[in-house]
Amino acid sequence: MKKNKSLTEQNNEELLFSKTSEDAIFIANEAHYNQVIERIKTVKKTLWIGTADIKDLYVKYELGTKPLLKVLSDLVQKGIEIRLIHAKEPGPNFRKDFDKYPALIEGMERVLCPRVHFKMIILI
User: pTM to 2 decimals?
Assistant: First the structure.
C-alpha cells in the first residue's frame, strides 16, 4: 500500500502541476505564473478572478513587464467579461494603476465580499 506524502515530502516536480481530480489541479511555485497568470491573456469570453487580497501585479511583456491591469483593460476593450471578487479594498499602488485604465471602471465588475478566503481564476 502506497503511503500518501505530505506537501513537504513531495518533490518540487510533483508540486508544480499535480492533478487532484478530473476538474481541478493543484499548482504551486513557478507553475503558478505559467499555468495561471499567462492564461489570462488567452481568455475568449469570460474571466472571473477571486482573491482575498488584491496586489498590484506586473506580468512579463516583451523584454520587461506591464501591469496585469493593462492586460485586463485590453481584454475589456475586446469585449471580454471580467468579474473581480475580493475581500478588502486594494492598496494605494493598485488604486493608482487602476485609475490609468478607464475601460476597467465600467467594463470590469468588482464585488467586495469580506468573506472571500480563496484564490481562483476561471477562464471561459
Answer: 0.73
The DSSP call for residue 46 is: E
Helix intervals (H) in 9-49 = 12-16, 31-32, 38-40
* Model pLDDT for residues 15-28, shown as the tens digit of each residue: 444 445 566 667 77
Is the separation of the CB atoms in 72 and 58 below 8 Å? no
- Cell readout for 6 is 505530505
Give the number of other Cβ atoms within 10 Å of residue 27's Cβ: 16
CA distance 91 to 83: 19
Q: Contact, 15 vs 7, CB < 8 A?
A: yes
CA distances from 44 to 33, 39, 100, 108, 121 (A): 19, 11, 24, 15, 14
